[in-house]
Amino acid sequence: MGGLCDSCFGNQREELIEDIDPETRRQQALEAAERRRQETENRGIKDPDKVRRMEERSRRLEQLEEETAKKGMGQPELRWQAD
Questions:
Q1: Number of independent structural domains in the chain
Q2: Compositional bias of type Basic and acidic residues: which residue ranges (predicted)?
Q3: What is the pLDDT of residue 35?
Q4: Are 51 and 45 in contact (CB under 8 A)?
Q5: What is the DSSP letter of 76?
Q6: DSSP string covering 7-64, please?
Q7: Is residue 42 within 8 Å of 48, Cβ to Cβ?
Q8: What pLDDT is stored for residue 9 in this prediction?
Q9: Is residue 24 one of the residues assigned to a domain?
Q10: Is position 76 within any domain?
Q11: pLDDT at 30 over 70
């Protein structure tokens, strides 16, 4: 979609894009995609670090619960001793 500015500047933007080598262009596209992913992931979250800490804590608690369930339904092992 050309415009008044394109005719004034002689499509310099297209020339600049063509001068960038493909590897640099791929790297820039990768960085832009990563930024968009992070922005989307953090949308609506006031403190993303706090959310990550809470998720990590939740994962650790789930692991502990699974381990205790495997060991004996959450109850300590009883050992009988005769005196």
A1: 1
A2: 22-70
A3: 94
A4: yes
A5: P
A6: HHHTSHHHHHHHHS-HHHHHHHHHHHHHHHHHHHHTTT-S-HHHHHHHHHHHHHHHHH
A7: yes
A8: 59
A9: yes
A10: no
A11: yes
Residues 1-11: pLDDT tens digits? 555 555 565 55
Q: Within a domain: residue 2?
A: no
C-alpha–C-alpha distance, residues 38 and 51, integer Å: 14
Predicted confidence at residue 60, as pLDDT, reads 96
Residue 56 lies in a domain: yes
> 52 lies in which domain range?
11-69
Residues 55, 61: Cα–Cα separation, whole Å? 10
What lies within 8 Å, CB to CB, of 42 at 6+ separation is 48
Dig out the tokens for 27 from the structure. 């790297």
Please name the amino acid found at residue 49.
D
Report whether 52 contacts 58 (CB < 8 A). no
